[in-house]
Amino acid sequence: MGISVWQILIIAVIVVLLFGRGKISELMGDVAKGIKSFKKGLNEDDDAPAETAKTIDHKADDTVTMTKSEDKTKAG
User: Fold this and answer.
1) CB 16 within 8 A of CB 24
2) Nearest-angstrom CA–CA distance, 36 and 27
3) Distance CA 39, CA 61 (A)
4) Which among 14, 27, 31, 58 counts the fewest CB atoms within 10 Å?
5) Digit-coded pLDDT (tens) for 29-53
6) Inter-residue long-range contacts of 40-47, CB under 8 Å, 24+ positions, other chains counted
């Protein structure tokens, strides 16, 4: 059971009666501005050069030894 054309028309008439034509056109203008701003933001991202990935060099063979005084403080 879907929504028919008549049901959509009745809902549209009720919305126009409740909010008025001026308020609806103002709202649609705001929606259009939002869409334009969104598209502009997407285009600016495409124009920006891609950043290269940064890596950190790490030596895995470095070892750390614990002295006897550090061992006693950790255990206590």
Assistant:
1) yes
2) 14
3) 50
4) 58
5) 999 999 999 999 888 776 655 566 7
6) none
Integer Cα distance of 55 and 24 in angstroms? 52
Looking up tokens 């255990």 gives 75
Tokens of 39: 């598209």
Alpha-carbon distance of 66 to 69, in angstroms, equals 8
Using DSSP's 3-state secondary structure scheme, residue 76 falls into coil
- Model confidence, pTM: 0.40
User: Other CB atoms closer than 10 Å to residue 24's CB: what's the count?
Assistant: 14
How far apart are alpha carbons 4 and 7 in whole angstroms?
5
